[in-house]
Write a structure and sequence with these properties.
By secondary structure, the protein is mainly α. The chain contains three helices and no strands.
Length: about 180
């Protein structure tokens, strides 16, 4: 029987199935390597992966915080921009109002100045007219006296009486002109 087992073992050897001592030796090596990996390599690997996960989560938290800050800054910028636009609109409206007021004041000042210049011119014209009228009366009075002296044949003096006669004559002349122009 032993002989048949040995013969069967030698005859039926399959090259794909290892011997039992190879399996036991490989199993012992595998358990040692597994223990080495379990106690040394896996904890270090787990620690490394945990640190990396924490760093990634920290970076994500920082990115979220930065995004919230950016959104807050954008809202603040938008609010400031809206305030600046409304302030610019107020300044433009104020400038427009000031411009209209300045133009109105300039027009008023110009019309006042024009009225003053016109009044001064009218007063000067009236003064010139009065001066010309006085000069004309004196000249007409002198001519009338000269003419009357030539007609009468005597020299008439330019005294108060002769001046009164000339003034009365001119007043009658003006009254007759006014009466003729009113008809």
């Amino acid at each position: 029987m032993i002989h048949s087992v040995v013969k069967a073992a030698t005859e039926a050897h399959n090259p794909l199935i290892p011997e039992w001592y190879d399996i036991v030796g490989s199993l012992i090596c595998f358990v040692i390597i597994l223990f080495f990996f379990w106690k040394l390599v896996l904890p270090r690997m787990k620690k490394l992966l945990d640190e990396r996960a924490e760093a990634i989560e920290g970076n994500i938290a920082k990115a979220d915080e930065a995004q919230h800050k950016a959104e807050a800054l954008l809202e603040e910028y938008t609010a400031q921009l809206a305030d600046a636009r409304s302030e610019a609109a107020k300044i433009r409206e104020q400038a427009r109002t000031d411009g209209q007021r300045i133009v109105a004041e300039a027009k008023e000042n110009a019309s006042t100045e024009a009225a003053r210049i016109s009044a001064n011119a009218q007063a000067q014209i009236e003064a010139e007219r009065q001066s010309a009228l006085v000069s004309l009366r004196n000249d007409v009075g002198s001519l009338a006296l000269d003419l009357a002296s030539g007609v009468v044949g005597e020299a008439l003096n330019e005294d108060k009486r002769s001046q009164a006669i000339v003034d009365r004559f001119l007043a009658d002349l003006e009254a007759s002109e006014k009466a003729g122009s009113s008809k």
